[in-house]
Structures are given as structure tokens and as C-alpha cells.
Design brief:
Elements lengths: L1 H14 L18 H5 L2 H6 L13 E6 L5 H10 L3 E6 L5 H7 L3 E4 L17 H4 L4 E4 L1 H9 L3 E3 L5 E9 L18 E7 L2 E4 L5 E6 L2 E8 L4 E4 L11 H11 L8 H16 L3 E5 L4 H14 L3 E7 L7 H12 L4 E5 L1 H8 L5 H20 L5 E5 L23 H5 L2 H5 L2 E3 L7 H10 L4 H4 L19 H20 L8 E15 L2 E14 L7 E2 L4 H14 L3 E6 L13
Parallel strand pairs: 1-2, 1-3, 3-4, 4-11, 12-13, 12-15, 13-14, 15-16, 18-20
Antiparallel strand pairs: 5-8, 6-7, 6-9, 9-10, 10-11, 17-18, 18-19
Helix pairs in contact: 1-13, 9-10, 9-16, 10-16, 12-13, 18-19
The structure holds xanthosine-5'-monophosphate.
Length: about 575
């Protein structure tokens, strides 16, 4: 569903590209539970059948989000320990929620608030009274101390960046520190304004840093721990270990594995779908591929995939997708070759946003046309991922319920009266890859670089012509081949060629050329929100430029794009 997701989300992007500076207060979490999902107005409107994926039988760790920019990372760290967790905004967690969900442990995230300020966020008091281990991070530490009888002060306590902590005397052997202080002191990442000045009863200092006398405090009897730094970020190298130790203390068994997930997801799909038919938009991207194979394993021929070929795919891409799914997996697949339609409507259009809008609109029309031919279809499968369903915490106007997954839906399920099957809704991208491996998908599919829904259209600035697309496809294939041959593919988040809207003069043999210029782009990134250009060697760049110019007629000049994001974006349009 990557392309499906991609094209539909491109429609919203047409109005606002994500602002890389505004990573903002997301990081808050997703209602993977029936209660929360049912309370979302747009879900009710659409009557989505999400509940089949809503409740989990696994040990559950609740993350209460106070609006930190990095709350999602807490969830990722916990998942690395095979622990199921969900993030919920502080203002959606109440006693009824806690009773119904019965978390085995609770983590309080950081956040931009200031505990001494009136009306700053708090955790429900029940969090501390229900007898489960609690771990407070940064703002979460301060909330914990304040609510349990300690003291927090604002003032000149701000500390940002690297710091080094050491265990307090007699605490090096504490279970929470297992494997943490092997080197005596440990680097941590601080980012806070206020700080704790008096401990709550029952707590003691168990680690300090030169500027943070309460770097880690703990109440071993209750398994309450609170840290002033951020253990969830990479700059706290042993932070994941410390969180893992907390999970062990809390009694988690690490039962969230992809093998178990696969079996449960299959059972849930069967239960949800019954004997009805499901349509799945397939792009060949990781998410839609994994969703399709999983659903096919669950319901076999009740699944039909629709692969919309908009004529903006890479070299051999359509054939590869069709061969893999139709021939290798025997999944009923409609190959909707609508390239004439798309390229016809794009003729003469050079404005990037207009291109995106045209592609988004046509994609929906085409998908609907083919989907409506599938008799008895009641469900639409989507490769929605956990980060797509993240809510945002708003400190000014109550909980803000912007759910990204609706960008994917694009109104189509309502229009067609379809219910949604979203078997990946609880997973992060790397977990989807793990599930793909579990399902036996080829590594080449699982490790693919992301490819945007509007396809080559946004790698062809200016007017799109078949000639330019053809040159671009061939040049891109040479470039990717070079990257693979040099063993660099997996180090790079995304690499592609773009054909520039200009011709330049060159000399080949003894003749003058007047051909297209090409830009090569390769970036490293974690999530596509920020990115850095990949530092190829000069030898690599020289060799690649030579190969492209020799092997691809129509190109006589190659540039390498050294722009990071921000200020650039990954794609050229
Ligand atoms: P930008 O160009 O915004 O891209 O830095 C960030 C990531 O998003 C991909 N991208 C898209 N993905 N639909 C998508 O699903 C789109 O319309 C779209 N535009 C860009 C891009 O390839 C990169 O991975």
C-alpha cells in the first residue's frame, strides 16, 4: 500500500509539505485499542472495522505522553525488548482507562511543560497507586516527584546536551544498572529547564552527574524510577539497556515477537473478514507488500490486489511487482496499466503541486474503477503503520486528534462503502520489515528504498515527457546498480536520479552534444523528516557519472546533490 498511501497522502501534501523545522509535539501515540479508536469521530463516521486489531493479549506497557518530541523513541526502544507498548496523551488517560487496560508498567515521557506552573500536565494519581512499576523521564521525573511529595523548581537549571552520570555510592550493583556502568560513567543526553530539588518520600538518589544531583532517583521497593535525562535517544548509548532493565524488573516476558504477531494477525484477519472479499492497493513498496502477503496467508483468494501503473514507475518495476505477486505468490492481481491516462493528463504541466494533485485525483478514480469490478468486496486493506495513527498533544486547546491515517484513506472507503483492514497498524516500519522476513518475502523487496506515490513525476522537474521519463529510468537503473555494486545500498535511506529541466552543451567523440543534465541524490535519514546527503567518494561519483553518460543516451552532464534536509527536501518536487 505504499504507493496507495503515498499518492493519497500526496494530496494532503499538496496543501502543506511537512515542515522539517516543525517536528513539533508529535510523538504522541496511537490508539491501537478499541476504546480509543471508537472514540475518534472520523473513525465512527467511516465505521472502520479497526477493532479486530485493537486489543492485544500481550503484556502491555503504557507510555503516557506529555508532549516530548521524542516520545516515539521510547516506544521503539521498548519494542526492541519485544515488549508491546502504546503511547497515549496524558489528557486521554484516566482511571477508567487504567482499569480497563491494566498496564503492567507505565512510563511517563518528557514534555515541554513546567511542573511549577499552574495548569501544567499531571499524570492521573492512580498511576502511582495501582501497584505497577513506573519510570519517569525528564518532565516525567518532575511530575513523579511533585505528585509524590517532592519538590521541583524552575530557574537557572537548564541543561542541554551531553552529560556523564555515575552511580551513587553503593548503587553500582542495582538491577536497574545491569550492563549500564561497565565503563564507570555513562554518557546521557540532557534536555531540561526545571529540575527536582527535593525527593519524594521513599526515593533515594541512585546516580548523579556533575550538574544533576538527581540524575536518577529510585524507590526500589515500588520499582519507581525517574531520570532527568533522555534514555530513549541514541545519544544515551546505554539508555535502551536501562529501559530493558526496568522492563525486567516489571516482569515483562518479551512476548511481542513477529512470529507471534503473524499468527495473531492472521487469526484476526480471518475473524474480521469472514467469507467476504478484500481489495488491496499494491505498489511493490514494503508496507503494501507485507500487508498483501499477510492477508493472503489469512484468507487466500478472497484477496484481490490492484496495482495501479501510472507510467511513473522505475525501470522494470511493474513487471517485477506483477511477477512476484501473481506468479510467485499466486495472489489474484489486477494490473491496471493506466499510464496513458496519467501521462496524458500531465502533459504540459510543470507546476509541482498541480502534478501531485492530478496524480492523486486520477489514482483514486482509477483505483475505484477497478475495485468496483471486484464483486462482493467489503473490505479495503491498507498498510497503515503505527506512526501514521499518532495523535498530537496540544497544551493550549485540549487533546488534538489529528490522525494521520485518514490521509491514507482519502475518503475512498466511505465513498465505496468499504471497511478497512489494517493489519500493520500496530507496527513500526522496522517491525514491518521483520514481519516481511518472517513471511518469507525476498530481502530485495524488504530492504527497498522508499519510493514516493507520485513516482518519477517529482523527479522530473518541469514538464514530463515520455522521452525524459525514459532517460530518467535508464539513468536511475545505472545509478542504483552502481550503488549496489559498491555495497552501499543498505547504508543509504534513499537514492535516485532526477532529470533536470535543462540541456547543456558537451562534446562526445569529436561532436557537440546538447543533452539533458541529471542530478543524483542519495541521503541518509531515520524517518525521512530530516536527512543528510550521502558522502560518496569522488571515485564513486566519477565512475557513476561516466557510466551514466556512456550508457544512457540523452544525458551529457551529471551533478551530485549535496543538500541536506532541511533546507532541501529529499525529492526535488
Ligand atoms: P521529501 O521530499 O518531503 O520526502 O523530503 C520525504 C520522504 O517522503 C517521500 N515522499 C512521498 N511519499 N507520497 C509519499 O508516500 C508522496 O507524495 C511523497 N513525496 C515524497 C520521499 O520519497 C521521502 O522518502
Amino acid at each position: 500500500m505504499q504507493q496507495w498511501t503515498a499518492v493519497l497522502s500526496a494530496r494532503s501534501r499538496a496543501h502543506s509539505r511537512p515542515n522539517p523545522h516543525a517536528l513539533g509535539r508529535h510523538g504522541v501515540r496511537a490508539p491501537a485499542m478499541a476504546l480509543a479508536v471508537a472514540s475518534l469521530p472520523s473513525c465512527r463516521r467511516a465505521g472502520f472495522a479497526l477493532c479486530a486489531f485493537a486489543m492485544t493479549q500481550h503484556d502491555f506497557c503504557l507510555i503516557i505522553d506529555f508532549g516530548s518530541q521524542v516520545t516515539q523513541l521510547i516506544a521503539r526502544r521498548l519494542r526492541e525488548w519485544n515488549v508491546y507498548c502504546e503511547i497515549h496523551p496524558f489528557n486521554t488517560v484516566d482511571d477508567a482507562f487504567l482499569t480497563a487496560r491494566a498496564p503492567k508498567a507505565i512510563i511517563l515521557s518528557g514534555g515541554p511543560g513546567s511542573v511549577p506552573e499552574a495548569d501544567s500536565p499531571r499524570a492521573p494519581q492512580m498511576v502511582f497507586d495501582m501497584g505497577v512499576p513506573v519510570f519517569g523521564i525528564c518532565y516525567g521525573q518532575q511530575v513523579m516527584m511533585e505528585q509524590l511529595g517532592g519538590c521541583v523548581e524552575s530557574g537557572h537549571h537548564a541543561e542541554f546536551g551531553r552529560a556523564y552520570i555515575e552511580p551513587a555510592s553503593g548503587h553500582a550493583g542495582d538491577t536497574i544498572f545491569k550492563g549500564v556502568f561497565d565503563a564507570g560513567r555513562e554518557q546521557v543526553w540532557m534536555s531540561h529547564g526545571d529540575r527536582v530539588t527535593a525527593l519524594a518520600p521513599g526515593f533515594e538518589v541512585i546516580a548523579t552527574s556533575p550538574n544533576a544531583p538527581f540524575a536518577i532517583v529510585g524507590d526500589h521497593a515500588r520499582h519507581f524510577y525517574a531520570v532527568q535525562f533522555h534514555p530513549e535517544v541514541h545519544h544515551t548509548p546505554k539508555g535502551a539497556q536501562m529501559l530493558g532493565n526496568f522492563l525486567t524488573l516489571a516482569g515483562f516476558s518479551g512476548d511481542w515477537t513477529m512470529g507471534a504477531y503473524r499468527a495473531e494477525a492472521i487469526a484476526k484477519i480471518r475473524e474480521q473478514v469472514g467469507d467476504k472479499r478484500v481489495i488491496c492497493g499494491l505498489s511493490g513498496g514494503v508496507d503494501s507488500s507485507v500487508a498483501a502477503v499477510l492477508i493472503h496467508e489469512a484468507i487466500g483468494d478472497q484477496l484481490t490486489c490492484v496495482f495501479v501503473d501510472h507510467g511513473l514507475l522505475r525501470q522494470n518495476e511493474a513487471e517485477e511487482v506483477v511477477t512476484m505477486f501473481r506468479d510467485n505468490y499466486n495472489i489474484p492481481l489486477i494490473h491496471a496499466d493506466e499510464s496513458d491516462l496519467f501521462l496524458g493528463e500531465l502533459e504540459g504541466v510543470s507546476d509541482p503541486e498541480t502534478k501531485r494533485k492530478i496524480i492523486g485525483r486520477l489514482f483514486i478514480d482509477v483505483f475505484q474503477k477497478y475495485a468496483s469490478q471486484i464483486e462482493g468486496a467489503e473490505f479495503l486493506a491498507q498498510g497503515t503503520l503505527y506512526p501514521d495513527v499518532i495523535e498530537s498533544v496540544s497544551f493550549s486547546g485540549g487533546p488534538s486528534v489529528t490522525i494521520k491515517s485518514h490521509h491514507n484513506v482519502g475518503g475512498l472507503p466511505e465513498k465505496m462503502g468499504l471497511k478497512l483492514v489494517e493489519p500493520l497498524r500496530e507496527l513500526f516500519k522496522d517491525e514491518v520489515r521483520a514481519l516481511g522476513r518472517e513471511l518469507g518475502l525476498p530481502a530485495s523487496f524488504i530492504g527497498r528504498h522508499p519510493f514516493p506515490g507520485p513516482g518519477l513525476a517529482i523527479r522530473c522537474p518541469g514538464e514530463i515527457t515520455r522521452e525524459k521519463l525514459d532517460i530518467l529510468r535508464r539513468a536511475d537503473a545505472v545509478y542504483i546498480d552502481q550503488i549496489r555494486k559498491h555495497g552501499l545500498y543498505d547504508e543509504i535511506w534513499q537514492a535516485f536520479a532526477a532529470i533536470l529541466p535543462m540541456r547543456t552543451v558537451g562534446v562526445m567523440g569529436d561532436g557537440r552534444t546538447y543533452d539533458y543534465a541529471l542530478a543524483l541524490r542519495a541521503v541518509t535519514s531515520v524517518d525521512g523528516m530530516t536527512a543528510d546527503y550521502y558522502p560518496f567518494t569522488h571515485e564513486f561519483l566519477g565512475e557513476t557519472a561516466t557510466r551514466i553518460i556512456n550508457e544512457v543516451r540523452g544525458v551529457n552532464r551529471v551533478f551530485y546533490d549535496c543538500t541536506s534536509k532541511p533546507p532541501g527536501t529529499i525529492e526535488l518536487e
